[in-house]
């Protein structure tokens, strides 16, 4: 006698500009396909990101339960976005390690690490470890880290 | 008041020792001034660990609404491990089977695989 299989929650990972969620693509189809009313989500998302500068990309993780109710978690902006803004560059290199796009100081790295440390999935890490991951991301963008 | 001050200063000058031993006093004063300034600059050079002077505005990191701009602090206010971030990490030797040995062997194995892969392309 097997139990009826419980339908699993669906996870949607998406990057949305803060305060600017709209039912239009890419948000609309991504959620609509899973049966979520995009208008509801957008209103709640914009309310929750009201304290963030509009336009800052905010990674969100949306959990859609089988009965079409949803909950979501917002995280800190991507490290690459923060690094590109501090360094003043638009794009990272296509050839990290060979091309240098800009220079960044360890103080910048420290401040970026402080922002990322606010994330729930990073709070068990030492700030030193988070800072070394930020240095790794900077290297992949082609940024030179100087003391 | 000014006349009194003038007269006082003139009297002082007449009786002051530095007129009598003018050269010695002057040189000692200048030596002291030079030494102090040299020490100051060398100490200052040793102290600045960062290329980013305190007070620089770190733009783009105030992503919350109404957040004041993030400013670089003086070097002492940052934790000491920050200045060793860019140096290669050193593992103390804990003897056979220790963490240092494992890291070393892994690095050597990875390098060997990379070399073999490269030779296959030749």
Automatic annotation (TrEMBL), chain A:
Molecular function in Gene Ontology: large ribosomal subunit rRNA binding; structural constituent of ribosome
- Keyword line: Ribonucleoprotein, Ribosomal protein
Q: Which residues form the Large ribosomal subunit protein uL11 C-terminal domain?
A: 75-145
Q: Which GO terms describe its cellular component?
A: mitochondrial large ribosomal subunit
Q: Which Gene3D superfamilies match?
A: Ribosomal protein L11, C-terminal domain (1.10.10.250), Ribosomal protein L11/L12, N-terminal domain (3.30.1550.10)
The processes (GO biological process) annotated in the record are: translation
Pfam families named in the record? Ribosomal_L11, Ribosomal_L11_N
NCBIfam families cross-referenced by the UniProt entry: L11_bact (TIGR01632)
Similarity annotation: Belongs to the universal ribosomal protein uL11 family.
Q: What is this protein called?
A: Large ribosomal subunit protein uL11m
- Organism, scientific name: Suillus fuscotomentosus
From TrEMBL, chain B:
Task: Name the InterPro entries for this protein.
Answer: Ribosomal_mL54 (IPR013870)
User: Which keywords does this Swiss-Prot/TrEMBL entry list?
Assistant: Mitochondrion, Ribonucleoprotein, Ribosomal protein, Transit peptide
Q: Where is this region: Disordered?
A: 92-122
Ranges of biased composition (kind: Basic and acidic residues):
107-122
Q: Where in the cell is it found?
A: Mitochondrion
Alphabetically, the GO molecular function entries are: structural constituent of ribosome
Q: Does the keyword Ribonucleoprotein apply?
A: yes
Mostly located where?
Answer: mitochondrion
Can you quote a single GO CC term?
mitochondrial large ribosomal subunit
Q: Which family does it belong to?
A: Belongs to the mitochondrion-specific ribosomal protein mL54 family.
PANTHER family, alphabetically? 39S RIBOSOMAL PROTEIN L54, MITOCHONDRIAL (PTHR28595), LARGE RIBOSOMAL SUBUNIT PROTEIN ML54 (PTHR28595:SF1)
Protein's name according to its UniProt entry: Large ribosomal subunit protein mL54
- Native organism: Suillus fuscotomentosus
